[in-house]
Amino acid sequence: QVETTLKGRKLMVTAGPTLEPIDPVRYISNHSSGKMGYAIAAELSRRGAEVVLVSGRTGLPVPQGVKRVDVLTAEEMYRAAVDTFAGCDGAVMCAAVADYTPAEVAVTKIKKEGAEWTLTLRQTHDIAAELGCVKGDRVLVGFALETDHERENAVKKLQKKHLDFIVLNSLAEAGAGFGVDTNRITIIDREGHAEEYGLKPKSDVARDIADKIEKYLDR
Ligand code: C5P
Predict the structure, then answer these.
(1) Is 109 labelled as part of a ligand binding site?
(2) Ligand 1: which atom is nearest the Cα of residue 166?
(3) Would the ipTM clear 0.90, i.e. be above it?
């Protein structure tokens, strides 16, 4: 059933992994399935928002009513996100963006030579952080997937990237994080207030996050 609580709002969601080419046949990527971001895009759209989903390669179907912009690399996602965010009331940064990409992409397949091989990487744009610098009073939500010192690291990211709130999910938790259909989150806001939620389907987690966004937009 369609709702209208977010009617008139335009929101961006980034989702999925990025893929950083090494040569014509190889790349560096990560285990992000895109499921959490897609569930959020679907939920925001169901509430009447105009949603643009900037997505890395996932194999997931485009959620109903959502406009998807397909990208592969961190650089492509950066450009698409900056372009899209310019016309939006806010964004949810769900994508697992590579922090580093090969400094050079080989034109032909790299041959096997010697027992060791060193690949030089350079930093990519931190998309969330760059949007954080230009967001003004728009809402910006980030994700943190941590293996240690979870809260502490999440709060640091919240501040560094100028996010309004950050959704923390733990890799240590069974049923939470990459690939699975459930998640267990804690939402931390700028005031340092942390709200813990139970393990639930990603579609229900998306509702909790959408509720927070609604409250923030209506403030
Ligand atoms: O620093 P870290 O990657 O853990 O931060 C996670 C948050 O920042 C997520 O919301 C992620 O989508 C976003 N991010 C980004 N661009 C990057 C790295 C992370 O938008 N290059």
Answers:
(1) yes
(2) 10
(3) yes
